[in-house]
Amino acid sequence: MADEEPDEYDDELEDDDDDEEGLEVGVTIEIVGLSLYTHHGVTAEERKVGQRILIDVRFDVGEPDALITDRVEDTIDYGEVCQVIALVAQQQSYRTLERLCAVIADRLASQFGAISVTVKASKPEPPIPLPVEEVSVEVWREER
């Protein structure tokens, strides 16, 4: 009997394909806690010394072929996304996290065809004279 269950389940899945026509499907990719040492900040000293920031990204890529093919090459390479974020965050210094997030969002949208992108940059040790766990900025872009 145990051998019959997977076959029955597979048949149910095949039947469901017809029932799901017209449903909108999308894929959201999320990367949380990418830790990078960067040189962003308001003061010249902060940009010179640098600090660790954490980057979170979330982006919608529509319906990649991997939904059907199950092939890695038909979806987004998460490692490549992390490399692009690191390059953007480390190749130039920005005074504000807002600008950093906007540049990352633009690059992800253009390079990976993202429909919408949210980028959050956090400073776990912000250079302010009060006890704060972290400060963060979130920027989002959406195709119209």
From TrEMBL:
Keywords, ordered alphabetically: Folate biosynthesis, Lyase
Pathway involvement of the protein, from the record: Cofactor biosynthesis; tetrahydrofolate biosynthesis; 2-amino-4-hydroxy-6-hydroxymethyl-7,8-dihydropteridine diphosphate from 7,8-dihydroneopterin triphosphate: step 3/4
Domain annotation Dihydroneopterin aldolase/epimerase: ranges: 29-141
Gene Ontology MF: a single term: dihydroneopterin aldolase activity
EC numbers on record: 4.1.2.25
Tagged with keyword RNA-binding: no
Reaction(s) catalysed by this chain's protein: 7,8-dihydroneopterin = 6-hydroxymethyl-7,8-dihydropterin + glycolaldehyde
SMART domains named in the record: FolB
Keyword Lyase attributed: yes
GO BP term, example: folic acid biosynthetic process
Region (Disordered): 1-21
Superkingdom in the source lineage: Bacteria
InterPro entries documented for this protein: Dihydroneopterin_aldolase, FolB_dom, GTP-CH-I_C/QueF
GO cellular component: cytoplasm
Any single Pfam family the record assigns to this protein: FolB
PANTHER family per UniProt: DIHYDRONEOPTERIN ALDOLASE 1-RELATED
Protein function: Catalyzes the conversion of 7,8-dihydroneopterin to 6-hydroxymethyl-7,8-dihydropterin.
Family: Belongs to the DHNA family.
Protein's name in the database: 7,8-dihydroneopterin aldolase
Originating organism: Solirubrobacter phytolaccae
Taxonomic path: Bacteria, Bacillati, Actinomycetota, Thermoleophilia, Solirubrobacterales
Gene name of this polypeptide: folB
